[in-house]
UniProtKB/TrEMBL annotation:
HTH cro/C1-type domain location: 13-67
One example GO MF annotation: DNA-binding transcription factor activity
Signal peptide (residue range): none
Protein's recorded name: ImmA/IrrE family metallo-endopeptidase
InterPro entries: Cro/C1-type_HTH, HTH_RamB, IrrE_HExxH, Lambda_DNA-bd_dom_sf, ScfR_C, TransReg_Diox_bact_type
Organism annotation: Flavisphingopyxis soli
One Gene Ontology cellular component annotation held by this UniProt entry: cytosol
Key words of the record: DNA-binding, Transcription, Transcription regulation
Xref: PROSITE patterns: HTH_CROC1
Domain of life of the organism encoding this protein: Bacteria
CDD domains: HTH_XRE (cd00093)
């Protein structure tokens, strides 16, 4: 009696479940199977049969092509990238051997990928400790910003149910994208809340303040149109999407009230963007405009940064956009926002590589700077960088200029209008000097971990540090 054959695509199934925002138990209930069987499929201990693939596709209304891309290719590419790590430089691993491991022993391949990820995480912790940033990791000393960022990253900056709820809300208010006027009308008709624009001197350092006692929403009258609409949308999200925000936070292992407050604020901002730029309309417009951010900003009445940020959230199963990495820095290199949907290994410690053109954006404010990047392991990315400003609004008011960058893997760059005619050689960069093994980099600020420095009694190299080859 022949057994029904299946395929192993545990990581893809796990990603699908997380994108849908459901637990293993909920998926098991949807598919009429046991939670343990879902767990076995996600761990690649059990194959996913053709009948189960069809059941998943019908249950979640997905096309089979979207549901089951060849995860073997994904694992093979990831394992190949791992084996290009400098730590394996003296290991003679034939590419065919890696292919055989992925094809015949998917569990072992997954274990190797997890082990390498743990090694890189430990290496990062060591780098933090060497930089004087280490310390106790108990609940009292955890950085709430790091926790909040980790929570968003774990969901790949996409919250399916919250996004769908906001899209439905936007549809009730207006078709294809809404502005401040429609939100203001919604607040008045549904919640009996009046919006008042007041001078900054009256607002006392507040852009938005909800006066519950008088049922009025007070807005700084110096805000530009995109900022005003965004603040109105945030208040609407708190009023009508509060349950969806709470649901998105359910089960989050956050150690402090500060971390929970930061996550709640991030989800409210996510909801506001989803109201102003509804998923379906925004994703369609992004495709048509080939991700021209200025075009999208004008189409939806949003700012350049708001539109760029929204592009990082387009991860809906079956309707994914280009996966982007997003970062925002100030002129000193401090990172104030970071979102990763493209697998860009930007370390949480230290500053970004000085060879990355995001730093050049400050020299020509408002102009988009593009660049091809190559990491030490051979991965290539395409980068878009530009300055954005906040504050101001009145003469003499403080204004802050920051630079933001969007990066995508080279495979997706052709979908971007910015990559047309960009055929320059990629710039070799590192995640951070402590983790970059390129010995001849003249921009290096610190020696890499695990390398022995050579004395310069008889020879001084052009690079800041000379390292042994062993």
């Amino acid at each position: 009696m022949s057994r029904e054959r299946g395929v192993y695509f545990g990581p893809r199934l796990r990603r699908l479940r997380r994108e849908l925002g459901i637990t293993q138990a909920e998926m098991a209930s949807d598919l009429a199977i046991s939670p343990s069987y879902v767990a076995l499929m996600e761990r690649n201990t059990r194959p996913v049969t053709a009948e189960m693939l069809l059941r998943i596709a019908r249950t979640y209304r997905l096309a089979l092509d979207d549901l089951a891309p060849d995860d073997r290719d994904d694992h093979q590419a990831r394992l190949g990238a791992v084996l290009r790590d400098p730590i394996f430089a003296d290991c003679d691993v034939d590419p065919l051997e890696a292919t055989d491991v992925v094809a015949n022993f998917p569990g072992i391949a997954d274990a190797l990928l997890r082990l390498h990820a743990a090694y890189r995480a430990s290496e990062s912790v060591l780098a933090d400790h060497r930089a004087g940033e280490g310390g106790s990791e108990d609940a009292a000393t955890r950085d709430p910003s790091v926790e909040a960022r980790a929570f968003i990253a774990a969901h790949r900056n996409h919250f399916a149910r919250l996004d769908a709820a906001c899209e439905a809300l936007a549809g009730e208010i207006g078709e294809g994208g809404i502005g401040a006027d429609r939100i203001e009308r919604r607040l008045a008709e549904r919640h009996n809340i009046r919006v008042r624009a007041l001078p900054a001197s009256v607002m006392i350092d507040s852009a938005r303040r909800f006066d519950r006692h008088h049922d009025q929403l007070l807005i700084d009258d110096t805000l530009d149109a995109p900022s005003r609409a965004f603040q109105l949308a945030i208040q609407l999200a708190y009023l009508e999407c509060d349950a969806d925000i709470a649901d998105a936070m359910a089960g989050a292992a956050l150690s402090s009230d500060n971390a929970r407050a930061l996550v709640r604020r991030a989800l409210a901002s996510y909801a506001a963007a989803a109201i102003l730029m509804p998923y379906g309309a925004f994703a369609e417009a992004a495709d048509k405009a080939r991700y021209d951010i200025d075009v999208l900003a004008r189409r939806f009445g949003t700012s350049f940064e708001q539109s760029a940020h929204r592009l990082t959230t387009l991860q809906r199963p079956g309707r994914e956009g280009v996966p982007f990495f997003f970062v925002r820095i100030d002129p000193a290199g401090n990172v104030s926002k970071r979102l990763d949907g493209a697998g860009f290994p930007f370390a949480r410690h230290g500053g970004s590589c000085p060879l990355w053109s995001i730093h050049d954006a400050f020299r020509d404010a408002g102009r988009i700077v593009t660049q091809w990047l190559e990491l030490p392991d051979g991965q290539r990315f395409f980068s878009i960088a530009r300055t954005v400003t906040s504050g101001g609004g009145t003469y003499g008011a403080p204004r802050m200029t920051r630079a933001i960058a969007l990066c995508c893997a080279h495979d997706h760059a052709a979908k971007l209008v910015y990559a047309d005619g960009e055929n320059a050689e990629p710039t070799p960069i590192g995640v951070t000097c402590r983790l970059c093994q390129r010995p001849a980099c003249i921009a290096r600020a610190a020696p890499p971990i695990g390398r022995t420095l050579l004395a310069d009694d008889y020879r001084r190299s052009t690079a800041p540090f000379t390292m042994s080859e062993g």
